[in-house]
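Could you help me review a protein record that somebody else here produced? This is what I was given.
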Amino acid sequence: MSSADKFVLIGGMPRSGTTLIETVIGSHSEIAIPPGDFPFAEQCARGMSVSKIFTVLSSRETWKLWQVEKFESLFDKSHDQAFRQSLIDYCMTLGKRIPGAKAPFNEFFFETYQSWLRDYDLKFVHVVRNPLDVLASLKHSRIHKNLHVFDDLLEIQARNWSRSTTLGLARRQQCPDNYFILEYEGFVETPDASVEKLCKFIGVAPEPERMLNRVDYGYHHTNTSFPDLAREKSGRTDYVYRTSSRKSFLDRAEIDLIVAICGEVAHAIGYMDEDFSPGKPAYPRNVKPAVKLARRTKRLLRRLGF
């Protein structure tokens, strides 16, 4: 059994920079984050057994990079035991001390992970990015490029962004020692300072050279939905660079929908896009005359003592 006393988990919306942060944190000499997504709690919530979860995840190419090839010994364990032990085993193969994992939407299962890791010091890093850039990246990612249902997907994911960010802000307020909000834009603008803050939160010594060069993920070049734009940065080796706004890749109707759902939260946390601003509060519709009369009658009766 590993002597691990803490776990590092990474979450956030898809296309918000979670893979970048995974490879940065996982390149620390003490922290082991396996490549690829490990959405264990989400799959557990869907009713999948331990053996089914590992069978599905083992079919993904990134799992070939795990140095633990067989998981059959974990199939008879409970979900929490299998989750912990698989990551501890991976951590031990790398000779590191702190296990961890990354998956988009992990923040929606924070309480589950808290329960599973109640005997450990859980450090949760929640990556937040401008919703216009997140949704534009989703629209142009290879996963959704050929789908004809993006209009529905856009609204669903916009609502997920608002929910995810609201949950994250509440959790940071409730448990600041265990929950860290990392703004993607701030990270790529000042990566060295951001690494310092991350390491202070996790409780390890900063290793900016190792981490920003992503030394444990040499295979992983870039994860952008816009490879043509990424080639402009081909002179850089760490891929930690300030990207331009992706808003132009959305049409006006898409922008309006995102703003209607996400704009107020985005504005409140500091995104100063011209389309983000608080709107008017919602008011009830005009009250029908019969309802007004009934209310007035009740008030009059109360005054008369009835």
Summary: The chain has a mean pLDDT of 87. The chain is about 45% helix and 10% strand. The radius of gyration is 23 Å. The chain has one domain: 6-268.
